[in-house]
Amino acid sequence: MREAEFVRLNTKKWERYEASGQSIASFNPDHIAEIYLDVSTDLAFAQTHFAESPVTDYLERIARRFHQHVYSQRPNRWGEVVRTLRYDIPMAFYYSRRELLISLVVFLIATLVGVLTQQMEPDFARQILGNSYVEMTLENIARGDPMAVYKDKDALGMFWGIFFNNALIDVRTFLFGLMALPGALLIILYNGVMFGCFETFLMQHGAVTEALFVVNLHGSLEIPTIILTGGASLALGTGWLFPGRRSRIEAFRHSARRGLLMLMGVLPLTFVAALIESYITRHTEAPLFLRVSFVIGGFLLVSWLTIFLPQRLHRHGHTL
What we know:
The protein is mostly helical. Helix content is 80%, strand content 0%. Helix 4 (78-94) crosses helix 12 and helix 8 packs antiparallel against helix 12 (248-279). The protein is elongated.
């Protein structure tokens, strides 16, 4: 449907809803809920097809008024937390599909660059991973235990170290969005090259199974968090760089909220990835089918949370 036709068919209804907002307190709660659902459905359609149009901002104002009334009546704040987790975070991923796709494509290209460069220049790993880490890994491979680095006896200390380090990287990557596209893209590029280089380095030295089904026990969550955080960073940067028809401040406010919600969704995945890396990756003696199941399960979990669940919520009229 064209924007003009969409506006023509709904203008009178929206004007009625807007006028109703002046005396909303006197309305039946069920009637308020019906209006809010209807406006949210129209808003979701407008955000999908006419994201930069003034009609989208107009509908957001109407929806916000009813939203504030509906949710201000709730007796405790846990409802807000639940709503954020169940709806707002998935919908932030939905409305950032373009940024996430760019992040994914850049990461895959960078991974391919890392793979090809390591194949052509075997010492490339020393430049990317560090000479000491490469030497340690080669010694572990020679001893027949390529993944010995994950077998630190202090699993709890290892977990907290990994989690805080990776969470700091997530936050730093997100904030690089303030440097606009170059800052965010550089972080994604570097991580993609490093991942491709590391995987190829292990395979070149005979650790094929370890590269695919040991490293990726936690990598099935950790790698997607890089892509998701990169998408959040791009969303933050493009909001003020390309405001469209909104004012720059208003566009930045919207994009910053989306990015922060995405970051909130990434940090729990970072937490779980650190748990797996500290407590599960070390068990290299585990059956291959179990490791394969973990890897596939991790990728399916991320796909459900960031692709299929947001699409399902959007079909049911939920918006951000």
